[in-house]
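Q: Convert this sequence to structure tokens.
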Amino acid sequence: MITKNIVKVGVIGLLALLLLVMPLMTACAEEKPGIVKVGYLADLTGPYAAVGAPLVQAFQDYFEMINARGGIEGVQVEVLVADTQAKADLSVSAYKRFKAEGVLTLSCMVTPVALAVQTLLNEDKIPGINQTATLSIYAPPQDYMWCHGGVASDYDLAALFWFDTELWDRDEWGSWTLGILAHDNPFALGGVSAMYKYADTRGIKLLKPEVVALGTLDYSTNIMRLVDAGADVIFCETLGAGTGTLLKQMGELGVLGTIEEAATIPGKMVPFFGYTSYYVSNMLTGIEYASYTYGARGFASASEEEFPGVKECNDFMREKYGKVLPPEEGGTDYREGWHNAMVMTAAIERAVKAVGWENLNGETLMENGLKGLELDTKGFSGGTGYADYTGDRINVQSFKFAFWDDELGDVITTGNYLNIPELLPECEVTDYMTTQGGTGWYTP
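A:
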């Protein structure tokens, strides 16, 4: 009898305990949100639209893939997109709309967008995991400004270093002369600053840079000023949709040459293209002259399917579009949008595991997801993460030298990845003024 009573009391006690615990368990389960929102402030109809469309397409596609796999830690992702046309007022209004809709994080596509909203991001504690690649936005570090990929300065320095040390024969030809043609915006001019420093450090002669307004269509005068002044290389720093027009004009002016021709024949030079200017989608107008071009890449090309990260991206495109999108349809640009979403996903996953969904917000995402993030992209890119040095806000800082391959009809890479902060720390500058220029030179 006593045993039966003990059992009865035990069962009653267990039931009472369950009645107390089950509501708590239900409450905990309800703390996982039904959806998490991320945003993209894009340029879809402005000066960088040729790049913007495939970036956004891939950004959305990556989260489509994640949602099909069950979401991030069981939560579906909703992607909000706004076309800012790279204008400050449209960027601010779109950001405020995103904030009102509850975005956890977002990406700013180009520098004018990032500059327009960076104060708001820091005030509102909403991390920007950005496409925009201007070094001065990330150095010195801001808690809520992060670059998903690489900055213009590092792309430029990687290309110059490879050319200077691997392709130009100083013993045979002596030193060389660098001309620069850049858009008049902070992004492009940040790269100019790094190239100034590289030239002064490495004994390269600089010419006064040609800085042109957005929307410029005729570059012939700028080109010939640099050629007539003796440029062996003209580095074209991110001219957006004008890239192909510029390349075509170089070809029609008869100034394009091989490296040996640039070294030995007056009036011949080699064109280098910085960052997104070296995307095929921006080069189409002058694509027949692409075999003369060089640059740098921080991401593997579509042909490198030996890397699982590349194959995953390609397989998604094959399933959705029936093919791997070719370069002329934005297939190169696409990979950066994919990587942007990849970094965003990894940071959210890491933060959720650290603090739980119930404590996830912009601040905990920054502290527990982004700071110190190490990311294995399975060969999709060079070394990635935010754990390389104190205040690291730039995800990709290793690059390969790149050139045009006629057979593939695409830009491909060669050699090993170069870690630019380790290789050229003295050139990681945002406001350096060359000692060669004298009065009247443009100061970045």
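The radius of gyration is 25 Å.
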